[in-house]
Every structure is written in structure tokens, then in C-alpha cells.
Amino acid sequence: MNKKKFRWRYFIDKPFQTRFILRFSVLILLGFVLSFAVMAVAKAFRYKEPLYFRAKLLTEEEWKKVDYNNPSTYLDMKPLNVFEIYSVPLISISILYIILIGIFGLFISHKLAGPVYRIKKTLKDAADGKIDIKDLKFKLRRKDELQDLVEALNYFIDRVTKK
Hints:
Layout: H1 14-46, E1 52-55, H2 60-64, E2 75-80, H3 82-127, H4 147-162
């Protein structure tokens, strides 16, 4: 039975893949900064008065004794606004997105970096004389990206070597 090998080395072209992942992470950071800035502007100009109050954590017995005419019995009277409510979740979700982009970016960039590495290596071997130009053929794995580029390169080599 032909067993498929599991690939442990996902950094094929580390500089390329690192730049790829960092560029996507910068997009998330820019989204975070923009969202945070909008909330800060909203806090500074629009919401001079507090908008929300946090409910106290009360037991069932304490809730039965609440005087609904007196909000201080069931509300924490420290006023909150949109900025205070959403800043921590926004920071947390942005960090989570950056981690996810790092993980998925590594796997996605692997499908690009592998073919680029293979093409560069094959061209270098041909230039060094390790591969005869007439035998030069680019090969990629079935699920790799850049299949159309490899087909075009192989077509070009076939046409040039037949002349």
C-alpha cells in the first residue's frame, strides 16, 4: 500500500512566507486601529454622558430583595460607555485573528512557496548544467498553486528546444 507522507516542514521559503503572513497580519492590525479610533472618537465627541451601567452579580436570594425603584440595588453605578465596553473584546479578537492568520497563512503560503522554490531550484540546476535543457521539465504536486505557470514554462521549453 502506498502511504502518503505527512509534511512536517511547512516553511519552505521562510522569508517569502514570513512576509506573506506579516502582510495579512498588518491588515488585521490596521482594522483594529481603525475600529479603536472610531470608538475613541465616539467616546470623545458623541457620548459625553455614560450610556450603560453594569448589572451586579447577585444571587437568586439577593435578586428577590431588589428594589427596582432604586437602580443602585441591582446596578453597579460606575457608568460605562461604548469605548469601555468594547475595547477589551476588540483587542482580544484582534489578537485571535492575528494568530489564526499566522497559522492559515503558513499553510496557504506553503502552496505558493513550494512551487516557487521548485521552479527556482530547477532553473538553477539547469543553469549549473545538472539538467540538460532538452530534458528540462518542471513538475509540481497536484494541489500546488502556479500550475498554469509551470504549464506555460514547459510549453515554452518544448517550443524553444524543438527549433
